[in-house]
Amino acid sequence: MSARSDLAPASTTPATDRPTQVRRLVVVAGASVAALAVWAVADPLAGIDLTVRLSGAEQHVGAGAVVAASLVAGFAAWASLALLERLMRRGRRIWTVLAVVVLALSLSGPLGAVGAASLVALACMHLTVGAVLIPGLTVRRRG
After folding, report:
1. How far apart are CA 143 and CA 141, in angstroms?
2. H or E element in which residue 86 lies
3. pLDDT at residue 4 in the model
4. C-alpha–C-alpha distance, residues 48 and 123, integer Å
5. What global pTM score does this model have?
6. 97: left (phi over 0), alpha (psi -120 to 50) or beta
7. Which candidate, 135, 138, 133, places its Cα nearest to that of 106?
8. What residues in the chain have per-residue pLDDT under 50?
9. What is the DSSP letter of 3?
10. pLDDT score for 2
11. Contacts of 136 by beta carbon, 8 Å cutoff, 6+ apart
12. What is the pLDDT, as a whole number, of residue 7?
């Protein structure tokens, strides 16, 4: 198989398929809800102080920040997947590899956590969002 065939546009574009769009919107929302659930267990229920040190200043990670960050990640993931599906025959496969790499890199964010429990909880949030987005956005519609 030549490199040219990998760069050829896909014959069908799931990005423009209405049921796919709705499903992907649900996946993005689900990733945000899942991250918020991890936050709710860690912060208010378990009492873990979810604080990170950014540029020398400490900042508490609240529910709003969790929802906003997971929605931004979800919509960015969706947009990049849709673009790759339009531009490349194997766009979904390429996106999956890139998504796993981005998830691994995102785990450097919790390294700024103040305390081990906070680091684990924040890493769990990152992994949860990735665990919902990566398989959820790439699943194919049946039929």
Report:
1. 7
2. helix 63-87
3. 45
4. 13
5. 0.86
6. alpha
7. 133
8. 1-4, 8
9. H
10. 47
11. 24, 27, 30, 31
12. 54
CA-CA distance, 111 to 95, in Å (whole number)? 25
Pick the closest to residue 36 from 59, 68, 60 (CA basis): 68
CA atoms within a 13 Å half-sphere pointing along the CA-CB vector of 37: 10
Q: How does DSSP assign 5-35, residue by residue?
A: HHHSPPSS-GGG-HHHHHHHHHHHHHHHHHH
| Alpha carbons 7 and 98: distance in angstroms, whole number | 16
In the block, tokens 């990152």 appear at 126
pLDDT at 17: 81
- H or E element: which one contains 54? strand 51-54
Q: Are 92 and 15 in contact (CB under 8 A)?
A: no
Q: b/e map of 26-55 (b: 16 or more CB within 10 Å)? A: ebbebbbebbbebbeebbeeeebebebeee
Number of H helices, E strands in the chain: 5, 2
Please give the pLDDT value at position 28.
98
